[in-house]
């Protein structure tokens, strides 16, 4: 089979690799019908996640068709159409029993495209398949479903829920890439009074407007603190979400939040950021970090299936599997291409 293989920082290739197959009785093999690229994959290629070894197949998001199941798999059958979650769950450890699947101690957590071969391939082995896949409802397309593998539950859990968004809150979201846009989309479920999107790219700020932000701030031209201060009588935002993963944007998030407010870090960081405790110890802030647990995925699937959430505008570029290299180039140069989520589909 062919797959997108990581060969060290800055190096990747679509090439022949050994076929995916069953290793454990709880495994399934899924033919990947649709895959996508995550910002985390760019962090890997940038050398920010050294645990990823050269030779690893990248990717942790897919919708596909089950082609083989292990002897202990009970919920899946050959031919089932499934979402492959970015998080694998053993289902038995103390964290999985608490729905904290991202911290799984039994061999799960974020392993696809990280510690084991991932989904940017023609086939993928899915460990703990009963716990780590979701059936695709009738009437829901691959394009609608693929966003539920990672970015929608990540934005919802690590941003909106960790940030404790409440009705009438002023919510600021730094970064209007796919994660930031998913945060804008799901924050609206809690009826904030204002959603302020902050970014450097006008194309992404325009996307933020379409996804439901009512104030857009180009931080290269305008001062987000002044805009939010005017909106809140100088208090600061109730909730600030960091969706970029840079030291300066995390530090900006802390500056923008009001006393007693919440800073929810969603971004993947590859460098240290300074936490100015000398300034904020007195401000009663709550600062959260997190790897998505995907406990919300069934809820989000229900919202998409019932047309309460429309994820289709998230996909802006489409490629065939043989165009993986071009897809990465488009996604990595999003400021120029306007790419949000790029979709790769297998030949039918």
Automatic annotation (TrEMBL):
Q: Which keywords label this protein?
A: Metal-binding, Oxidoreductase, Zinc
One MF annotation (Gene Ontology) recorded for this entry: zinc ion binding
Q: Which residues form the Enoyl reductase (ER) domain?
A: 8-344
Required cofactor names: Zn(2+)
Q: Entry's InterPro entries?
A: ADH-like_C, ADH-like_N, ADH_Zn_CS, ER, GroES-like_sf, NAD(P)-bd_dom_sf
Which Pfam families does the record match to this protein? Answer: ADH_N (PF08240), ADH_zinc_N (PF00107)
Gene3D superfamilies recorded for this chain? Medium-chain alcohol dehydrogenases, catalytic domain (3.90.180.10), NAD(P)-binding Rossmann-like Domain (3.40.50.720)
Superkingdom classification of source: Bacteria
Q: Name the family.
A: Belongs to the zinc-containing alcohol dehydrogenase family.
| PANTHER family named among the record's database cross-references | NADP-DEPENDENT ISOPROPANOL DEHYDROGENASE, ZINC-TYPE ALCOHOL DEHYDROGENASE-LIKE
What is this protein identified as? Alcohol dehydrogenase
Origin organism is Mycolicibacterium aromaticivorans JS19b1 = JCM 16368
What lineage is on file?
Bacteria, Bacillati, Actinomycetota, Actinomycetes, Mycobacteriales
């Amino acid at each position: 089979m062919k797959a997108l293989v990581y060969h060290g920082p800055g190096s990747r290739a679509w090439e022949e690799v050994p076929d995916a197959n069953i290793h454990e009785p709880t495994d399934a093999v899924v033919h990947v019908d649709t895959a996508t690229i995550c910002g985390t994959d760019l962090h890997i290629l940038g050398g920010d996640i050294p645990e990823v070894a050269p030779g690893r197949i990248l990717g942790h998001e897919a919708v596909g068709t089950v082609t083989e199941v292990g002897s202990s798999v009970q919920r899946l059958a050959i031919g089932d159409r499934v979402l492959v979650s970015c998080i694998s769950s053993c289902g038995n450890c103390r964290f999985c029993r608490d729905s904290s699947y991202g911290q799984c101690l039994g061999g799960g957590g974020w392993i696809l495209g990280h510690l084991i071969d991932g989904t940017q391939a023609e086939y993928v082995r899915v460990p703990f398949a009963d716990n780590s896949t979701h059936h695709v409802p009738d009437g829901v397309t691959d394009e609608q479903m693929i966003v539920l593998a990672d970015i929608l539950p990540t934005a919802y859990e690590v941003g909106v829920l960790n940030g404790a968004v409440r009705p009438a809150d002023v919510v600021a979201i730094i970064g209007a890439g796919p994660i930031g846009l998913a945060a804008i989309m799901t924050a609206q479920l809690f009826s904030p009074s204002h959603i302020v999107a902050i970014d450097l790219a006008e194309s992404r700020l325009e996307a933020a407007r379409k996804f439901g932000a009512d104030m857009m701030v180009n931080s290269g031209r305008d001062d987000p603190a002044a805009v939010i201060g005017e909106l809140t009588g100088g208090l600061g935002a109730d909730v600030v979400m960091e969706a970029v993963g840079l030291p300066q944007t995390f530090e900006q998030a802390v500056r923008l939040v009001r006393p007693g407010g919440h800073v929810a870090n969603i971004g993947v960081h590859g460098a240290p950021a300074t936490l100015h405790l000398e300034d904020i110890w007195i401000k009663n802030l709550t600062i959260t970090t997190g790897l998505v647990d995907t406990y919300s995925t069934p809820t989000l699937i229900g919202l998409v299936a019932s047309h309460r959430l429309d994820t289709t505008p998230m996909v802006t570029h489409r490629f065939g599997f043989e165009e993986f290299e071009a897809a990465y180039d488009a996604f990595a140069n999003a400021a120029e291409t306007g790419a949000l989520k790029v979709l790769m589909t297998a030949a039918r």
